[in-house]
Design goal:
Strand content of chain B: under 5%
CATH topology of chain B: Four Helix Bundle (Hemerythrin (Met), subunit A)
Shape of chain B: elongated
Number of strands of chain C: 12
Low-confidence stretches of chain B: 1-8
CATH architecture of chain B: Up-down Bundle
Number of helices of chain B: 6
Low-confidence stretches of chain C: 1-5, 315-339
Structural class of chain B: mainly alpha
Number of domains of chain C: 2
Distance between the termini of chain C: 48 Å
Chains: A mainly alpha, B mainly alpha, C alpha+beta
Shape of chain C: elongated
Helix content of chain C: 25-40%
CATH topology of the largest domain in chain C: Immunoglobulin-like
Oligomer: heterotrimer
Order of helices and strands of chain C: HHEEEEEEEEEEHHHEEHH
Order of helices and strands of chain B: HHHHHH
Helix content of chain B: over 70%
Chain lengths: 552, 216, 339
């Protein structure tokens, strides 16, 4: 409850300038500083994972193995998968943007458990160092899926070390999940009812539920693989009558919901951006709020669609297929809703909106191909091929990272007090969108023609498509690297942002930029629905949308 | 939000909270969410036991008949009793009865230790019979699935014992804290600790029939 | 198609079975429907962005913030439409689960990093598979080490090959030619080299190919030798003094078990009975058979299974489906087995 007394604007104490020492950062319990710590760490991990992706794309330019050895290639795609999934995508939006924005959005001074929040970052850093050590010194060749019995009895690589790192990083996720759930339940400002929360809060809530309930199942299955490797305590060993498919069931029970951990926050961010830049209340608020919860819930019942050719029973396959069709419904609702929100808006084209629109495009392509994969006989043909690779990259990378970038640009003025440079930002957004499509569309085709995933060498006929993909990856890489430079530049040279450069309605915009240490001098009282937007520049009551109309 | 807890009046409110009430109910919810996560952790074992039981009914019966029903049952009673003492400790803290509270916590720690001691003896006995896989002695059972059973058994009870050990450390720390300083945080610590302890108990209650009662 | 064709770039890969053609039709039909469902978004999104750009003269009066009928509509209608494809894909999948009775059987063993195929006549080949066109072929597959997956893109099918049990894959290729065999489940260092060639031939050419390679013995005959070599015949033979069930006529029939259940005597059952004899104890017999786990490799198991299969199914006209529960072995058609 630090009283931020009236100061001259230049001297105003913010979360950034109240202390400068390294220790003040390493010992901080301020959710905003922890968000920034995560931003730094995750950016590093993203580029390490991206480096591995670059090696993969270089290797696949030719059908023979000329850049890497077969073992080297297998280790590189494992690095790419493990780092990107657990050390970037899962924590990306929740732990950076979520950490920074969530308490501000609901009118709280901090998360419910600030020290737990800091602990989660330390756990994350420790696990990252461990994972990097084991992945780079010796390496692991199982892929990020760690399928038994290959991982438990055959691979001679550092499987145990990496499994331990993934196990540990799970605690970091769970800590964040618990923190968010409790914060949303208990720390909302007076008047901030559930249905007045911005949609991002709903999607972070749904994400946290999935994190808390699914991550421990991954933990236990990895623990059992490690036990089998280290102590010979076979649980999945067919020689003992064990069933390697049990591992796959446990693994996907986590890892399919994990896809929703990666995409739900992105949906929330996209919703915020679209409402703001279209100057409209989000269309069908309740539908979109409940669809997040529906995705989280149904998401626990579809894991078996990863195993249609693995040898599970036909009945199970049909049930999982139907459930997978069902989960497309809430996703479709969101896409239609975003489109309808633009109707009769006052749309200003800015970098965050470009990212949000490319989120929608990439998400739709990923979603459509997801339905092909949910169809039994069709999945039999395309599963374990580049069709699947391309599908989940569209969702988990194309869409999810677009939303992450969009959110980063949208809240950058709030986080740093400076505006980013608009022109390079638009250019980067364009590069990312186009580069992504160029990289991954050819992969759908290669997959349907029969190119299996995790192939170091491949039949010659796929070379043209692979070269196209690698060329697209060059553009994509450039697009992903650009923000690193112009965002860093803006820290010192950007225009001062002011408290509310987007004239947005969320509570986070009612505090100064950057916010003071404890966010609110006095906890605000919320009297309006979310997203009561007026056109840019409009003051007072010009907008026809009154609150009564909104509540209809 | 529930009624203000008696004994909560002196609680120091951390700066992110508006009131002691908000802080307490947040702490309690946080514990519940964490416990839900813990249940899912053990869920993997329950699933493993059930799936393999269906796949190898004879092997699992045979293996289960080699477990020590007596120790298992005594341990169940011990753990249930410890849940009672921990519940009494919560009552004591609510009524501000420090002596009784510390006594109950001590009893809880004692019962937890007794459980671990009995479990250790059981492990030792099983080691002697060669039931501990890969411990250097030939495995005496030949029915398919028996070794799977014991692998699951050691993994599940081992993880449970690790949780219990953590619980014992927590409870001892709280008891010492209460005895030495009587700090304002004790009431909520006891509450959270008790919830965790009950979870350890509940997990055992599920493990017990899966391990000891299968096919008897 | 000649082998050369596989080395150059192609936009399309032929579908060489009716199943494959139906998969293609469903895929593109479904993509068509999905495109139809996306069209409103694809048109309206850019239109709105341009038409309602900041400062444009378009009217913003009475902008709706919800519309229940529309919202329910776009939730439910696309789902119902897509169910058509769910259903057809499921039916096609189920067909693929049921190989025809008369399918020719080929045994497949996957191991790091090669595919081994065994024809019924005993001809074996590695990393290539010759099959006749127009004839249903059933692959009975098992892995000797990790999980592999046999992928035949020209036929639009694949199936994981597991280390602990047999899985099946069947197809009826219609067009002669050479096509890829690929491993689709990551299996270690040389995963991407675990490839082979599927050669679909005219039936006469296939026969000629078979005849040109002189097998030492048929698969079943080799199995019979192993049956003696491993000592199986000591108990299961015709003149054995140990009371074990005869295996003649066993194949494909239901086996009553000691625990009251029934199991069909198929490849998995026979393999399990050799490796894990306690798993299914036939009713009326004591569980005295030792396990051969770790002593018989998958290749030999394939031959043993083929031998027992060659002993034939119970002759429908003769055999009474009768179980002698007193333990007195019935005649040569005794269906019980605790191998």
């Amino acid at each position: 409850m630090t009283a931020t007394a009236t100061n001259p604007a230049s001297q105003r104490p913010t979360y950034l300038n109240h202390a400068y020492t390294l220790w003040s950062w390493l010992s901080t319990t301020d959710h905003k500083r922890i968000g920034m710590l995560y931003l730094g760490t995750l950016t590093l991990m993203f580029f390490i994972g991206g480096l591995a992706a670059t090696l993969i794309r270089l290797e696949l330019m030719t059908p023979v193995g000329d850049v890497l050895s077969a073992d080297g290639y297998n280790k590189v795609f494992t690095i790419h998968g493990v780092i990107m999934v657990w050390f970037f995508l899962v924590p990306s939006i929740p732990n950076t943007l979520g950490n920074f924005i969530l308490p501000l959005m609901i009118g709280a001074r901090d998360l419910a458990f600030p020290r737990l929040n800091l602990a989660s970052w330390y756990i994350f850093v420790a696990a990252s160092i461990m994972a990097l050590y084991f992945l780079l010194a010796g390496g692991v060749d199982t892929g990020w899926t760690f399928y038994t019995p290959y991982s438990s009895m055959f691979s001679n690589s550092n499987v145990t070390g990496v499994i331990a790192a993934v196990f540990i990083v799970g605690f970091s996720s769970i800590a964040t999940g618990v923190n968010f759930i409790v914060t949303i339940h208990k720390m909302r400002a007076p008047g901030m009812t559930w249905f007045r929360m911005p949609i991002l809060c709903w999607s972070l809530y749904a994400t946290s539920l999935v994190i808390v309930l699914a991550t421990p199942v991954l933990a236990i299955s990895l623990l059992l693989v490690a036990l089998e490797r280290v102590a010979g305590v076979g649980i999945f060993d067919p020689a003992l009558g064990g069933d390697p498919l049990l591992f796959q069931h446990l693994f996907w029970f986590y890892s399919h919901p994990a896809v929703y951990i990666m995409i739900l926050p992105g949906m929330g961010v996209t919703t915020e951006i679209i409402a703001c830049f279209a100057r409209r209340r989000i269309f069908g608020y309740r539908f979109i709020a409940f669809s997040s919860m529906a995705i989280a819930l149904i998401g626990f019942g579809v894991w078996g669609h990863h195993m249609f050719v693995a040898g599970q029973s036909a009945v199970a396959a049909i049930v999982f297929s139907l459930m997978s069709f069902l989960i497309a419904v809430p996703s479709a609702i969101k896409v239609y809703t975003w489109t309808a929100t633009l109707y009769k808006g006052d749309i200003r084209m800015a970098a965050p909106l470009v990212y949000a629109l490319s989120f929608i495009v990439l998400f739709v392509i990923g979603g459509i191909t997801g339905l092909i994969l949910a169809s039994l006989a069709l999945d039999v043909h395309v599963t374990d091929t580049y069709f699947v690779i391309s599908h989940f990259h569209f969702i988990m990378v194309g869409a999810s990272v677009s939303a992450y970038m969009g959110g980063l640009h949208f809240w950058w003025p709030k986080m740093t007090g400076r505006m980013y440079a608009e022109r390079p930002a638009l250019l980067a957004a364009l590069f990312i969108g186009i580069g992504f499509v160029l990289t991954f569309l050819p992969q759908f085709w290669a997959g349907y023609l029969g190119m299996p995933r995790r192939y170091h060498e491949y039949p010659d006929e796929f070379q043209v498509l692979n070269v196209m993909s690698s060329a697209g990856a060059g553009i994509l890489g450039l697009g992903y690297a650009m923000p690193l430079f112009y965002l860093t530049w803006s820290l010192r040279h950007g225009e001062p942002a002011g408290d509310n450069p987007w004239q947005a309605t969320g509570l986070e915009w009612s505090v100064p930029s950057p916010p003071p240490k404890h966010n609110f001098v006095e906890i605000p009282v919320v009297e309006h629905e979310a997203y009561s937007y007026r056109p840019f520049g409009a003051q007072g009551s010009e907008r026809v949308e009154s609150d009564e109309e909104i509540q209809r | 939000m529930t009624r203000p807890l008696p004994g909560a009046e002196g609680v120091a409110v951390q700066e992110q909270y508006e009131s002691a009430d908000q802080q307490m109910s947040a702490n309690r919810l946080g514990m519940w969410v964490f416990l839900a996560s813990e249940v899912m952790l053990f869920g993997g074992f329950f699933l493993g036991f059930l799936v393999y039981r269906v796949m190898h009914p004879q092997g699992f019966e045979e293996a289960a008949s080699h477990t020590d029903l007596l120790i298992g049952t005594v341990n169940t009673v011990v753990l249930l009793t410890s849940s009672l003492t921990v519940a009494l400790a919560v009552t004591a803290v609510r009524h501000g009865r420090r002596g009784m509270g510390i006594g109950c916590l001590a009893a809880t720690v004692g019962l937890g230790a007794a459980f671990l001691a009995l479990k250790g003896y059981e492990y030792w006995k099983e080691y002697g019979e060669g039931l501990m896989p890969h411990a250097g002695k030939p495995f005496p059972l030949h029915e398919e699935g028996t070794m799977l059973f014991f692998n699951l058994y050691f993994a599940a009870t081992g993880l449970h014992a690790a949780h219990l050990t953590l619980g014992i450390v927590m409870m001892s720390t709280i008891a010492v804290l209460w005895a030495v300083r009587g700090t304002a945080r004790v009431p909520e610590l006891v509450e959270s600790g008790a919830l965790y302890w009950h979870l350890i108990d509940v997990i055992w209650i599920w493990l017990y029939p899966l391990i000891y009662l299968a096919g008897r | 198609m000649t082998p050369d064709d596989t080395t150059s770039f192609r936009w399309w890969t032929d579908a060489v079975s009716s199943h494959a053609e139906r998969v293609d039709a469903l895929t593109f039909g479904f993509l068509g429907l999905l495109a139809l469902l996306v069209i409103p978004v694809a048109i309206l999104l850019p239109y709105f962005v341009v038409h309602y750009r900041e400062g444009s003269p378009a009217s913003r009066k009475r902008a709706p913030s919800n519309n229940r009928r529309l919202e329910w509509g776009w939730s439910i209608i696309p789902f119902l439409l897509s169910l058509y494809f769910f259903w057809h894909a499921a039916v096609l999948f189920l067909d693929q689960q049921r190989p025809p009775e008369d399918a020719m059987e080929i045994a497949v063993v996957g191991k790091q990093w090669m595919w081994k195929f065994q024809h019924p006549g005993g001809q074996g080949e590695i990393d290539s598979l010759h099959v006749p066109a127009g004839v249903p072929v059933r692959l009975r597959m098992i892995s000797q080490d990790v999980i592999h997956s046999l992928f035949l893109p020209a036929l639009r099918i694949k199936q994981d090959v597991l280390p602990d049990r047999y899985t099946d894959l069947w197809f009826q290729a219609e067009k002669t030619g050479r096509y890829h065999i690929l491993c689709a489940e990551f299996c270690g260092t040389a995963h991407s080299r675990m490839r082979g060639e599927l050669v679909v031939m005219e039936p006469e050419a296939y026969q000629a190919w078979l005849d040109a390679r002189e097998p030492d013995d048929t698969l079943a005959a080799r199995g019979e030798k192993l049956f003696r070599a491993y000592g199986c015949s000591g108990c299961h033979g015709e003149n054995s003094v140990v009371r074990a069930p005869s295996l003649a006529g066993l194949w494909g029939s239901p086996v009553p078990l000691a625990d009251g259940g029934t199991v069909t005597a198929d490849a998995t059952y026979v393999r399990d009975s050799i490796l894990f004899p306690q798993r299914h104890v036939a009713a009326g017999y004591r569980p005295i058979m030792p396990s051969f786990r770790g002593q018989i490799g998958e290749d030999d198991l394939v031959e043993l299974v083929a031998y027992i299969q060659s002993l034939g199914s119970r002759d429908r006209r003769a055999a009474p489906v009768r179980q002698d529960r007193d333990g007195e072995q019935t005649d040569e058609a005794g269906e019980t087995t605790s191998p």
